[in-house]
């Protein structure tokens, strides 16, 4: 099994990416091969720092880099030899089993949509994000930001995708699916969430527990939190900022430490034909390593086949 | 000046309401008269506990109560002698200058819409909520939950209403208005927020600073945070739950203490012809007292006249 990393992605690339890949290669030794995709002139000198530990990495050299600020679709099309474009081609051809990048999020989504493509039957792929639970373990929030405007049927599918992920990757037997709204009552919500609520009620594939509220993100009510990408993005950025404020104010706590993106690693793209994970721009080596571990878990679980199976009409 | 309280509203009413009213009457002595509206048989015995302090309160007796779980519109119509309906009639007739209740939120909105009515030119009144800022003071978030589905023009007006409130009640000279979105760039957002962004850009009445993100709720970027009621409600409930988790985990902090609803008091309804404030269902006496103080500040500032003036076309 091969888990690949975009060595050029992230605010601290390639240093942080290479360091994270070396860490992950140690942890995955005997289970999976870590593949590093990047510019030879930048990656090779860095690897020398790690001596024999770096020898475990497989290297693939690309010549271009999609920068963080570039227009995603344009850059992806014009830079066919960028680390992201090369990674997606290898993923699509089956040379690698998962592709991770802390680089340009938009370009990662473009590659997901146009190189790897959505699973047949999936209306719109979504980004999933892990949410630590007070009772222990993690829940999953879908969508974390890929789709700002959603139709009720999209929200329904986010619930199905999240439920499959919770089951096959997180190992939750019968994941509770909650629909984010502004009140628990069925009649509360926007026009879209109210319609989605009705779809969920008769959906035999998910264990729908009804509406949940902003206060239920971290509690035990739902394992799968369904919302549009606008709401999901706002919530996650807000949680992250509250964690940052706590750190600044010297409030140390085991639970809130799990809200830190570093512990979580990255955000898988669900509903596409292969395993792709997007990392946080400011990813440290630890975050990169955890993202690669996630990539391994996803690939190992066979989640994509489960999704394909489930969406076969 | 008369500031009235629904003695029957809130999960701990009438006890907490009466206790809060007594507190507020002491603080407002010489400035404003606190009026208590409620059921005589329930309110009178409670007042005896407070001895002479209770004598400062003006009493208005109503015979009915709208319960927390009741259907707002139906209950408001059928219970014409409920404390909420009586309060709104007194507000509309000018007998009182502000009306506060920690009772049924929906019924408070019904009274606002049908007894007091929206200011001419305002498309939809909104609920405002105060947000503590890391740099000190408070910002204001509009809408906190009255309108789940918004048109771009509504968001634009929320910015105008919030800006007037920040200016005339919070005393912020040139309030910075930020539009909540999932990215800072102009092109980021939902179809509605993208259109609202364009309206704000050419609006001469507000100091628009562009898109803000979930991470900007507590920082100094914007004094007025504009979002639809769905997003606002989710954010505020999430902030509240994170505060609750911190309390449970013995994390004490001066800044996060300000996120506590108790300190804030209540949420004014903006864009109606009088001063009405909705309190949290679980309001304690301190929260009730702070809500009444807010009611006084609103009435004293003449904010409603400012809004009427500003929306006169």
Automatic annotation (TrEMBL), chains A, B:
Catalytic reactions on record: a fatty acyl-[ACP] + phosphate = an acyl phosphate + holo-[ACP]
Location(s), subcellular: Cytoplasm
Pathway where it operates: Lipid metabolism; phospholipid metabolism
Molecular function terms from GO: phosphate:acyl-[acyl carrier protein] acyltransferase activity
Swiss-Prot/TrEMBL GO biological process terms: fatty acid biosynthetic process; phospholipid biosynthetic process
Originating species: Hymenobacter setariae
Protein name: Phosphate acyltransferase
Keywords, alphabetical: Acyltransferase, Cytoplasm, Lipid biosynthesis, Lipid metabolism, Phospholipid biosynthesis, Phospholipid metabolism, Transferase
Gene3D superfamilies: Isopropylmalate Dehydrogenase
Subunit structure: Homodimer. Probably interacts with PlsY.
Biological role: Catalyzes the reversible formation of acyl-phosphate (acyl-PO(4)) from acyl-[acyl-carrier-protein] (acyl-ACP). This enzyme utilizes acyl-ACP as fatty acyl donor, but not acyl-CoA.
Top EC class, one word: transferase
InterPro entries, per the entry: FA_synthesis (IPR003664), Phospholipid_synth_PlsX-like (IPR012281)
Cellular component, GO annotation: cytoplasm
Entry superkingdom: Bacteria
